[in-house]
Protein: Receptor ligand binding region domain-containing protein
Amino acid sequence: MERLNDSKHKQDTKMAFVKKAIWTMAYGLHNMQKSQCPNTTGLCSQMLPVNGSVFLQHLMNVSFVWGNETVMFDDNGDPPGRYDIMNYQRISATEYDYIHVGSWISGGDFKMLRPFQWPFITVNETTPPESVCSKPCPKGQAKQ
Structure:
């Protein structure tokens, strides 16, 4: 895998989804080949032409480890939910960036990697910032 290690380039995070999809298809085809062509090292006549319904059954039963997660599908064909928690933080006097501060994976717990920072105000650790939109409107006025 090629990586760009200079400060001018960032690897596109969406490429991991593409790679994972390709590996999922490969595992599905491999499992189908093992099932339909036992004791052979390649395609056999039972696989040609490829039956999409049979392939889908093998694809939905794929399970493999990708980094720190297991790639698999539930009975509806959905993968487990996974969310990365990002926080917009000041990283220097003039720069801000999104920082990965936590993760949640279905069936698991929320995993906090680092504390949240509020980029535009300073707040002590015991007092959360007050949300401007939570203040009630004076009589006769509406929020815009």
User: Anything to note?
Assistant: Residues 15-71 form one domain. The chain has two domains: 15-71, 82-134. The chain has two helices and five strands. The radius of gyration is 24 Å.
